[in-house]
Amino acid sequence: MYQHPHDEEVQYRADRGGDGRAFWRPALRLRRRTIIVISALAVLPLLAVVADRGAAELVESRIAGDFQDGMDTPNEPSVHVRGFPVLTQMSSGTLDRVDIDAHDIPADGSTRPVPVSELDVRLDGVSTSGGDGEARARKAEATALLTYQDLTDSLGLEIGKADEPGRIKATAALPFGDELTVTVGVSAASGNRIAFEGLRVDEGDIPDFVQDLLDNAFDEPLPLENLPEGLNLRTITVTDAGISAYLTGKTVTFRPDSSSA
Q1: Residue 161 pLDDT > 80, yes or no?
Q2: How far apart (Å, rounded) are the C-alpha atoms in residues 224 and 144?
Q3: Number of alpha carbons in the 13 Å side-chain half-sphere of residue 112
Q4: Burial class of residue 100 in the structure, from the number of CB atoms within 10 Å of its CB (0-12 exposed, 13-18 middle, 19+ buried)
Q5: Which residue from 157, 169, 218, 258 puts its CA 20 to 30 A from 80's CA?
Q6: Would you list the DSSP string of 37-91?
Q7: Where are the domains of the chain?
Q8: How far apart are CA 253 and CA 243, in angstroms?
Q9: Using alpha carbons only, how large is the chain's radius of gyration in Å?
Q10: What residues pair up with 186 in beta bridges, in sequence order?
């Protein structure tokens, strides 16, 4: 007797549980589990990165607060903890590298206070596990900028960049609207101080009252105030923005160095 192919398909399904659903369920469950496992494995690294970034932000905030408290800055500095993972560094008690960008560090306790307009610091081997609760770096290097406007306010003369490399110019007002401009070289001196030397005037004589201003401004080295303790001045560079000081040091802390005061 002739049997339609459809009848064979019905019989095939019937032999395997009626509509065939029981045959496909194990395969579907296995596929779902595989997808779940793969998705979980893909998400785990992302969760690790998110957790590490959260830990980094926490320690960055703490370092910024410690710096502001120690250096008496009006605002917290920008802090960036380098390296990954940060959680591993934190568990060891030492951060590999921390970069700090601070602004407007005041200069207190000086007869010629010049604030540090910008301080960029790289700290290596930063430990925050000490009993005193302050951050301490195994070594550091930094660049401090003293702007010409701040130098002008401190020294009582209009200060700017001279045409000759390594020198600044100082302009004093004379009677009847005239001006007198001199140039002077700048260099690094001991005790985190900036020395002025080789004062020259291009033309004319220096009146006595202007000479007094120049003596008060340049006879004694200018101390760099309120730098993190442990930093030592290495070189001075005259730039378009001001005088740039390069410093390095070991065992550096967020506490003003009183040795230069």
Answers
A1: yes
A2: 9
A3: 21
A4: buried
A5: 258
A6: HHHHHHHHHHHHHHHHHHHHHHHHHHHHHHHHHHHT-SSPPEEEEESS-HHHHHH
A7: 47-255
A8: 24
A9: 34
A10: 196
pLDDT above 70 as % of the chain? 74
Token couple for 42? 């893909």
Q: Give the global pTM.
A: 0.77
180 CB-near residues (< 8 Å, 6+ apart): 171, 172, 174, 201, 204, 206, 207, 210
* Euclidean distance between CA atoms 70 and 102, whole angstroms: 12
The predicted structure's pLDDT at residue 260 = 45
Instruction: Give dist(CA 176, CA 123) in Å, integer.
Output: 53
**Selection from 125, 41, 56 nearest residue 86 by Cα:** 56
- pLDDT tens for 185-224 read 999 999 999 999 999 997 778 899 999 999 999 999 999 9
Structure-model confidence comparison of residues 12 and 104, the more confident one: 104
Q: Is 176 helix (H, G, I), strand (E, B) or coil?
A: helix
